[in-house]
Specification:
Blueprint: E1 10-15, E2 20-23, E3 26-28, H1 35-46, E4 50-55, E5 67-71, H2 75-86, E6 91-94, E7 101-103, E8 122-124, H3 128-134, E9 140-147, H4 151-161, E10 166-171, E11 183-184, E12 186-189, E13 194-196, E14 200-201, H5 202-217
Parallel strand pairs: 1-4, 1-6, 4-5, 6-9, 9-10
Antiparallel strand pairs: 2-3, 7-8, 10-12, 11-14, 12-13
The protein binds ligand PMT.
Domain FERM: 182-219
Region (Phosphopantothenate--cysteine ligase): 11-219
Protein name: Coenzyme A biosynthesis bifunctional protein CoaBC
C-alpha cells in the first residue's frame, strides 16, 4: 500500500543551521530552524522508512519511534555524524543550512571589547553534500538550494556539482518561503526537468518531496 512504500528503507536527513564558534560565548549562524528537515523526517517515517536526522542547533525533536536524532553544532561535527551513517542509507536529504565558512581558530577565552574594529579570519568548511556525493553508490540523494538571485541556474549548478539526483529550490524572493516560516514554496529540479509547487505548509511540502523521490526511485 502507499503508506508502506518505504518499508525497509533507511533515510539520512540533515536539518537546521550550524553554529561556528568565534569564542566560548559567540558563534556564526543562520536563520534555519530545522522545520523543513524535521517535516521530511516525519513524512519519510510515516511511509515506513527508518530515519536518521543529523541536526544542528534547533529546538525541534521527534517522538516517532522510527526517527533517531543526532544533535551537532558545527559543520565539521555534522559531516562526521553523517559520514558514520551514509554508507548504510538508501536515501539522503540535505536540508541543513550549513555555514560555508568558520572562524579558523576559535578564541579560548571570551574576546574582550577593545578596538573600534575587529577582524575575524574565516576558513572554508567542508561541504557535507558534496563530500558524500563523491562517495555515493546506491544512495538516492536530494539537495536543497537556497537562493536570492539567478535561482534556477544556481540550483542546476549545485545539482551537478554535488551529484544530487534531485534538488529542491526555495527562493527568499518568494513570500513565505525558506527560513523559519511554517510554509515553503519549492521547485524540484532533476537532470530531465523541473516542477514548481504552490506555497504550502512545510508538512505538505515534505509530502510532495517524498512523493517525487518515491516516483523517481520507482517505489
Ligand atoms: O530550517 P528551516 O527554518 O525550516 O528552513 C529550511 C531551509 C531554508 C534551511 C531549507 O529549506 C533549505 O533550503 N536548506 C538548504 C540551505 C542551504 O544552505 O542551501 P545552499 O544552497 O547553501 O546549499 C546547497 C546544498 O548543499 C544544501 O543541500 C545544503 O544542505 C548542502 N551543503 C551546503 C554547504 C555545506 N558546507 N554543506 C552542505 O551539505
Amino acid at each position: 500500500t502507499k503508506t508502506q512504500r518505504l518499508a525497509g528503507k533507511k533515510v539520512l536527513i540533515t536539518a537546521g543551521p550550524t553554529h561556528e564558534a568565534i569564542d566560548p560565548v559567540r558563534f556564526i549562524g543562520n536563520h534555519s530552524t530545522g522545520k523543513m528537515g524535521f517535516a521530511l523526517a516525519e513524512r519519510f517515517a510515516s511511509q515506513g522508512a527508518t530515519v536518521e536526522v543529523v541536526s544542528g542547533p534547533s529546538t525541534l525533536s521527534s517522538t516517532h519511534a522510527a526517527i533517531h536524532v543526532t544533535k551537532v553544532h558545527s559543520a565539521e561535527e555534522m559531516l562526521e555524524a553523517c559520514e558514520a551513517k551514509f554508507d548504510n542509507v538508501d536515501i539522503a536529504v540535505f536540508a541543513a543550512a550549513v555555514a560555508d565558512y568558520r572562524p579558523d581558530t576559535p578564541a579560548q577565552e571570551k574576546i574582550k571589547k577593545s578596538n573600534n574594529t575587529l577582524t575575524l579570519h574565516l576558513v572554508k568548511n567542508p561541504d557535507i553534500a558534496a563530500t558524500l556525493g563523491k562517495r555515493k553508490k546506491k544512495q538516492f540523494t536530494v539537495g536543497f538550494a537556497l537562493e536570492t538571485t539567478n535561482e534556477i541556474a544556481y540550483a542546476k549548478e549545485k545539482l551537478h556539482k554535488k551529484n544530487f539526483n534531485l534538488i529542491v529550490l526555495n527562493s527568499l524572493k518568494d513570500q513565505g518561503a525558506g527560513f523559519a516560516h511554517d510554509t515553503n514554496k519549492i521547485t524540484i529540479l532533476d537532470h530531465d526537468g523541473s516542477s514548481t509547487f504552490d506555497l504550502k505548509s512545510k508538512q505538505e511540502v515534505a509530502n510532495d518531496i517524498v512523493d517525487v523521490v518515491c516516483k523517481k526511485m520507482g517505489l
